[in-house]
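REQUEST FORM: STRUCTURE PREDICTION
Request ID: SP-0412
Submitted by: Lab K.M.
Chain count: 1
Length (residues): 243
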Amino acid sequence: MNTEVWDRIAARDRTVEVDVIPDSVVYAPGGPTEADLRLFGDVADKRVLDLGTGSGTNAIALARQGAHVIALDRSVAQLGRARKLAAATDIRVEWHECDAADLAFLRADSIDLALATGVLGEVEDVDRLLRQVHRVLRPGAPFVFSYDHPMALAVGREGDAPGALPLGTLEVQRSYFDNVPVEVTRDNERIRVWPRTIADVFASLHRAGYRVELLLEPEPAGSADPGPDIPLVVVWRARKEGV
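STATUS: Completed
RESULT:
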């Protein structure tokens, strides 16, 4: 479902806007960047895996910093945009059309950093994804990822669905503990995401063999809706442990 939606979004925007490619990883639309949070440091000469790369802006930003970037996405149209952006900036990225958890083409213990911005919320079987990423990471290497904060998915404005947040009275519209998929708006399209509590994600990381180092809930910048009282995104840094 979501792959077709992302294909439509990419097809609507055929422009290649080199000027809008950030110099740093962006963890959420309008949200914090790696320059703000400093979660993984220097990536020069490191092998970096970008899961759910979308239009490729984060992959290109990492490659500009000297990383060897392996970026993957299921959307053919989004990858087409990413390749055009990379060509326009004369940046080399290794692109792959595949699911975020289909990492059999990568050797075990071969990745220095894994990154996923947004895509974990769209993955139903997050345990499988975490196991696959754990397999390809080098021992002690970090997995840094972000997605819609579960509290932001539990609230909404009066008269609309959770996650949309139009004008109106802010109210709790679904239980924080409800893991039934919901739809959120991205570029005027509806995307299905799987809400998970913070405790659920922590438990999944523990089962897969990670040590959680950081959990961040950045305050929305400026006048971002729903405002500073509710975080819109959650950002994790976990390191590979175990075997």
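NOTES: The first helix runs from residue 2 to 12.
Reviewed by: T.R.
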